[in-house]
Specification:
The structure holds 2 protein chains of 2 kinds. By secondary structure, chain A is mostly helical. Chain A is 49% helix and 5% strand. The longest helix of chain A is centred in the N-terminal third of the chain and has 20 residues, at 2-21. In chain B, the strands form 3 sheets. Chain B has a 4-stranded antiparallel sheet.
Chain lengths: 73, 408
C-alpha cells in the first residue's frame, strides 16, 4: 500500500499549495482536473473541510480514519 | 464572525507553509458555521466571495455538504453541534403524505422560522436522495463516537428511523433490493444519465440500512419489542440481499470482464442466470480491458436492463470500502487499482466522454448538457478528498488485518 500513501502525500501537498491560491474553489475541471471549475463558487465549505480532514488524518491522528466504521456488533 | 487573520492571510498570500494554510482553512471553516435558534447547527455551502454577487442558495445549510463538516466536528469532540444538526434535520423530516420520511436537501432560518428544501425549490426541481440516506449514518456515527446512547434510543430518533425505513423496505415493481431513483438524485445533481440504481445511492443505502440496524438494535437492548424485532430481521435480510446484488451485478475485474463479453443474450425464464439484465456484448466498452489491465477491480456505476454504466465513480467505490460492502479480498485490489489509476486529481466520476462517444461507451443516452456536465468535468469535491484520506488510513489496516465478518 506504499503506492496509496504516496498518492495521498502527493495529493495533500498539491492541495496545500493549490487550494489557497485557487480560493478553495467548489470544483475543478480542465484536461488534468486542476483548473477552477467554470461555474465554481469560491471559499466552498466542503473544499475547506475536506482539506482539514485530510490534514487531520495524515498529520494529526491517522487512527481517527476508523471514524466511518459502522461497527461490528 | 470576524476572522482573526488578516485579509491577506485569508487569501493565502501571507505564506505557503503548512501551519499557515491549516490556520487559514480553520478560520474559513469557523466563518462558515451558522446558527439556528441561537445554536451553531452546521456550515453554509460556500462563503461569499468579496466582489462577486450573492449565490442562489449557497448560504443554506445542505445536509450533503455537512457530512464532512460533521465528521470533522466529531473528530474535534464538538458533539453539541452535531447533535443540534441531527435534531434540526429530524424536525424537518417530511410528514407530507407524498414525501413522508425524507430529509431536506437543505434548510435555512429566515425571520425566525426554518425553511426546508425537499426538492421543490432546487434547480430543476430535483430531489436529493443522498441527504436522507446520510442522516442515519451520521446519527449512528455520532452515537458511536460520543457514547450518547440516550440520543440513539430517543423516541423521536427511533420514529425517524422507522419513517425512513418505510421508504425502502416495501414491495416494488422491480423486486430487487436496490433503491430506484430518478436522474440527479444525489451528489451528481445534474442530468448525467445517472437514474435507476446508481452505485453511490446503493452504497449509501447499504450504509444507511446498517446504521438503522445499529440504532434499532440499541433500542431493542433497552426494551424488547416484537415489532422492532421484525424490522431488525427484515433490515438484516435486505442488507444481505443488497450486498449480494451489488457483488453480482456491479463488481467487475479483468476476469469477470471476459465473461461479460461472451455471455449469451435474450435469455428467458429459468435460463437467464448468466445475463439477467440482457446486456448485449457490444455495450461493454473496449477500453475496459486495457483500463483494468489485470489488476484489481471496481464497482461499475449503474445497472439497468440492457444499460450498464461502466464509468468509474470514486465516491461510490470509496464508500463501498469504508462501509464494509467491499471486504478485504475485494477492497484490497480496489485500493491498489485506484492508487495506480488516480493522479493528483481525484475525480468524482471519471467519465471519458471527451475521448469516446458517450452513448457508445455506456450504452446510455447522452446526458443533457449543462455548464457543469461538459466533457472532462472532474469534480474534486471534498467528499472525494475525504475518502482519499480515509482510504489511506484504512488501507494500512486492511493490508494487515484478517478479513472481518459483516456486521449484520
Amino acid at each position: 500500500m506504499d503506492q496509496m500513501h504516496e498518492l495521498l502525500e502527493e495529493s495533500y501537498r498539491s492541495q496545500l499549495s493549490q487550494l489557497p491560491r485557487q480560493e478553495w474553489a467548489e470544483y475543478f475541471d480542465g484536461p488534468t482536473g486542476a483548473w477552477i471549475g467554470q461555474q465554481a463558487r469560491t471559499y466552498q465549505t466542503w473544499t475547506v473541510v475536506g482539506f482539514l480532514l485530510m490534514h487531520h488524518l495524515l498529520r494529526v491522528k491517522p487512527s481517527d480514519a476508523t471514524i466511518l466504521d459502522l461497527g461490528t456488533t | 464572525m470576524k476572522s482573526p487573520l488578516s485579509q491577506e492571510q485569508l487569501r493565502g498570500l501571507g505564506g505557503t507553509n503548512e501551519e499557515t494554510v491549516v490556520a487559514i482553512a480553520n478560520a474559513h471553516f469557523e466563518r462558515s458555521l451558522v446558527r439556528v435558534r441561537g445554536e451553531i447547527v452546521g456550515s453554509v455551502a460556500a462563503l461569499e466571495h468579496p466582489g462577486k454577487s450573492g449565490a442562489v442558495n449557497y448560504g443554506e445549510v445542505f445536509v450533503r455538504d455537512n457530512v464532512p463538516v460533521m465528521l470533522y466536528l466529531l473528530l474535534q469532540g464538538r458533539y453539541g453541534i452535531v447533535r443540534h444538526f441531527l435534531t434540526i434535520c429530524l424536525e424537518l423530516q417530511s410528514s407530507a403524505y407524498q414525501t413522508r420520511g425524507i430529509f431536506p436537501t437543505s434548510f435555512v432560518e429566515q425571520q425566525g422560522s426554518l425553511v426546508a428544501d425537499y426538492g421543490q425549490r432546487s434547480i430543476g426541481r430535483i430531489s436529493s436522495v443522498d441527504a436522507t440516506l446520510w442522516w442515519p449514518v451520521l446519527c449512528w456515527l455520532y452515537v458511536q463516537r460520543s457514547h450518547d446512547y440516550g440520543f440513539g434510543t430517543n423516541q423521536n430518533v427511533q420514529r425517524g428511523v422507522q419513517l425512513l425505513l418505510d421508504l425502502v423496505l416495501h414491495p416494488t415493481f422491480e423486486g430487487t433490493p436496490v433503491l430506484f431513483v430518478p436522474d440527479c438524485a444525489f451528489m451528481i445533481d445534474r442530468p448525467m444519465d445517472v437514474w435507476g440504481a446508481p452505485l453511490e445511492v446503493e452504497v449509501l443505502l447499504f450504509g444507511c440500512l446498517r446504521s438503522c440496524y445499529q440504532l434499532m438494535a440499541l433500542a431493542q437492548k433497552g426494551s424488547m419489542s416484537r415489532l422492532l424485532e421484525q424490522r431488525l430481521v427484515l433490515t438484516r435480510q435486505w442488507i444481505q440481499d443488497l450486498r449480494g446484488f451489488l457483488y453480482k451485478h456491479y463488481w467487475v475485474t479483468s476476469k469477470t470482464m471476459q465473461m461479460l463479453r461472451r455471455r449469451p443474450t435474450e435469455q428467458f425464464g429459468e435460463q437467464q442466470g448468466e445475463n439477467e439484465f440482457n446486456v448485449q456484448p457490444q455495450v461493454v466498452p473496449s477500453w475496459l480491458q486495457e483500463w483494468l489491465d489485470n489488476q484489481g477491480g471496481y464497482l461499475i456505476g449503474n445497472m439497468r436492463t440492457g444499460r450498464p454504466d461502466f464509468r468509474f465513480y470514486s465516491l461510490g467505490n470509496s464508500l463501498a470500502c469504508l462501509f464494509g460492502l467491499l471486504t478485504p479480498p475485494s477492497s484490497g485490489p480496489c485500493f491498489g487499482w485506484c492508487s495506480t489509476t488516480a493522479r493528483t486529481s481525484w475525480p468524482r466520476c471519471r467519465c471519458a466522454s471527451a475521448i469516446r462517444p458517450w452513448t457508445w461507451m455506456s450504452g446510455a443516452t447522452k446526458p443533457a448538457p449543462t455548464p457543469k456536465t461538459g466533457p472532462g468535468v472532474t469534480t474534486t469535491g471534498a467528499t472525494g478528498r475525504v475518502c482519499c484520506g480515509f482510504l489511506g488510513g484504512r488501507s494500512c489496516s486492511i493490508n494487515s488485518s484478517i478479513p472481518r465478518p459483516m456486521a449484520c
